[in-house]
Amino acid sequence: MSNDSNSSFSLQQQKLFQLAKSKRISSVELQHTIEQLCEGIAEMIQCERIGVWLFDDEQPSLTALNVYQQHNGKHTSGERLYKHQFPAYFTLLKGTRVIAISDVSNDERVKELYPDYFSEAGNIQSMIDAPIVLANGVAGVVCCESSIARSWSRLEESLAGTFSDLVGFLLDSLQQQEMEKKLEYLAYYDQLTGLPNLNLFYSEVNGSIHRAKNPVLCYLQVDQVDQIIDALGYDGGDQIIKEIAGRFNRVLKSNETVARADHDHFALFLDEADVENRLKNILFLMSPPFLVTGYDVTATFSAGVSRHFHGENPAKELLQSAQIALNRGKMRSARSSVTWFTEEMKESSKDHFAIEMDLRKGLDLNQFILYFQPQVEGEEGEITGFESLIRWNHPEIGLVPPGVFIPLAESTGFIIPLGEWVIKESIKELKKFHDNGMDQVTISINISPRQFLHHRLPAIINEGLMQYHIPPERLCLEITESVAMEEEDLVIERLKLFDDMGIQLSVDDFGTGFSAFVYLQEYPIKEIKIDKEFIRRLTTNHKSIAIVKTIIDLAENLNISVIAEGLETIEQWALLNELGCKRFQGYLLSRPLPPDEINGWIDSYKRASFYSITRRK
User: Fold this and answer.
1) pTM of whole model > 0.90?
2) Residue 575 counted as domain residue
3) CATH of the domain at 562
4) Would you say 64 and 34 are in contact if contact means Cβ atoms under 8 Å apart?
5) What is the SS3 assignment for 524-554?
């Protein structure tokens, strides 16, 4: 080997090490440097062909990163050798430092490659192979191939090994950089959607918020993701999230930022004078159906909106405020709510948080109890049923009103296990009534909108009825008119299913919602309960009388039973009786009772006539 060759190789070594130390190594720079090194090593050890091959474990195979032909000066790449064709050779590379072969035609180690590979490579007679070893294993091989039979010197073997080490050093450095890029991507971007995650969102918003004229942060939740997962599986849930992310990218302006904040939540930063109309416009553009696994799926969004901040991390502060507003809005409406943050919400959210934590423990600690309010019918006052009403006996606060914990349970999803407990305990109590000879009474159970559409509800009810041998017609499910605001097709399907099961369906608080009369026309409803507000105003408001009369007459024509809920005075009873209402529930008859007081109430009730009860002061 000449001094010039040694000098050239030394220079190539220096260049390679400098490049490997650089923090901006690219695959293009790697390819160019490998080509130069192949030319240099070919000249130094006088080989006709120098190749750098890399393992592809997925195939599995060896792929040529670069093959240099000295006789014509050409560089090629992409040639592939497959493991199933040369299994022994692949195994050899994994366990040998340098493979020096003087005669390829008579060496057992490469008999799989002879004669086809060596002939196609240019009638190769001798070769040195030096595996490329990285930190995580053998990555490939450097092949020095000669068309002249020769014995390799130790120096030539050492040079091939050094070349292999230098290539390995460079590949290690490149892999490290690629890993760092992947880690950086994972740190700042959501893997499923490619949207920024909250880390990048906070950084971008904090960097631009002080230049914004009207900064506003919106925290959005996709209302239907859980139902989509129930219907189409987790793949369907992932697909709708990806479709939503893609549409956000298309409808937002250049100065608007979106991030995926959680499973079905997105954070949106706007700088708009008329932010309410801009948000309406964005939600309108997001409203057309998405194609998910062959289905047209409509998604709606609930939003919390915040614009005031005071601290050093305004983006995080705004997001937390917007989240509080979103949660508050979800308590009022399960779908399509837009709620602006107020400072009062922040204080009450602390109380709600404490209650929520206790709420989850309460079920495990048996702190919930059921009360039952009687329902009577006819002039004789026959007991026809009881409404099941949940109460929470908090160890520190005492009895927590349902109006406090039910909306919280609904918004957090805890209503599902809580509702299942109510159903099971109510049916269990109904069994006791039947065993005591009251086999004609029904139990009415309030079902929340979220629970009504839950896929497990029919099975839970059926299991309870079968366990206690209760006829399904003795169970009445009370739903509110707000259920009609959910997925209409699913609501109709669920109502029909319960009707086919023989379960009675009742509309609670009838007359207060936009959909009241649609219920009677479209759904298999057996009972309606006139809202207590109409009953309360009955003796003081002529419009209430007209409304109640209309409801009673309409129900009678449709063969639907009517209950007057919230009966409190003799005057109300007399007027309702005159209007044609024969079923009643309210404090005039009895307050809601714990189970251990029901038998005593029944005994005292039976000793008195309904006539005398209605004249109590």
Assistant:
1) no
2) yes
3) 3.20.20.450
4) no
5) CCCEEEECHHHHHCCCCCHHHHHHHHHHHHH
Asked whether residue 211 falls in the same domain as residue 323, the answer is yes
Domain boundary among 341, 364, 386: 341
Categorise residue 46: left if φ over 0, alpha if ψ from -120 to 50, beta otherwise.
Answer: left
Query: Which residue range is the domain that position 524 belongs to?
Result: 353-607
Same domain, 20 and 98: yes
Name the residue type at position 244.
I
* Domain-terminating residue out of 292, 308, 341: 341
pLDDT digits (tens, 9 = 90+) for 44-69: 888 999 999 999 877 799 999 999 99
What tens digit of pLDDT does each residue of 475-526 get?
999 998 767 555 677 888 899 999 999 999 998 877 655 445 666 777 888 9
pLDDT band at 262 (very low <50, low <70, confident <90, very high): confident
Could you give the count of Cα atoms lying within 13 Å of 484 in the half-sphere of its Cβ?
18
Is residue 96 within 8 A of residue 131, CB to CB? The reply is yes
User: How far, in Å, CA of 289 to CA of 383, rounded?
Assistant: 50
Q: How far is CA 216 from CA 22, 220, 449, in A?
A: 42, 13, 31
Q: What was the pLDDT predicted at 611?
A: 47
Three state DSSP letters for 146-191: ECCCCCCCHHHHHHHHHHHHHHHHHHHHHHHHHHHHHHHHHHHECC
Q: Are residues 516 and 577 in the same domain?
A: yes
Euclidean distance between CA atoms 592 and 587, whole angstroms:
8
Burial of 379 (C-beta count, 10 Å sphere; 0-12/13-18/19+): exposed
Please tell me whether residues 329 and 413 are part of one structural domain. Answer: no
Residues 402 and 463 in one domain: yes
Contact 64, 51 (CB under 8 A): yes
Say how far apart CA 461 and CA 472 lie, in whole Å.
9
By DSSP bridging, strand 368-377 and strand 382-394 are: antiparallel
CA distance 274 to 278: 6
